[in-house]
Please model this.
Amino acid sequence: MIDETDLSQEKKSLYEQRAEMTVANLQKKNICAQYVSTRPEALATVLGMIPPAATVARGDSVTVDQIGIIPELRKRGQTVIYPIERNADGSLAFSREERTKVAREAFAANIFLVGTNAVTLDGKLVNVDAWGNRVAAMIFGPEKVIVIAGVNKIVKDVDEALERLRNFAAPMNAKRHYLKHHQTEFGELPCVRTGNCINCNHDWRICRFTVIIEGIAARDRGRINMVLVGEELGI
Model:
């Protein structure tokens, strides 16, 4: 008997079609891109892109954590640079001064691992940042950038990406810091209290740097690499 409530096959097919178009358009912009179906495939793919002796920096990314890359790198004995490293209870491990120092060290890393807030069907990466260190490292600094994203991050265009950033990703991320990381100041943000962006000027506004990567120069091809995963990942 056909299970009309199970849409996994339809969803998988649609995701693959959207990912195929996105990958092709990223490659046209000199961003090396590939699609994998599952988290385990993503883990194996990303680990294969990182030489054993490489120094790896990472941005704050739920997707990176969901794939499980960092524990595997540490098993290999690799140095991982993470300015907002957290303790077991979710609190920040470093002081403000230490975080700034570590964030600057990330620019000299061999590899930068990061997610993306959105990727458009025509091959643009759209991100918003509170501090700016994550988007800055994507643009310049580390020798190679590996961007990992679930297919739920694919959007039609930049307008849809910005809508996603302002009214979903940023409020959700701020709420994550409030609930999981004991940063009570984020609980004061209008988007956390209401769920909607009002383009505030709050001291703890989480969306201060919006960056659209429309591709890279041909001479730099191979620096930015995208791994699209056929699962819903991240925020």
Q: What stands out?
A: The first helix runs from residue 8 to 28. The chain has one domain: 8-229. The radius of gyration is 18 Å.
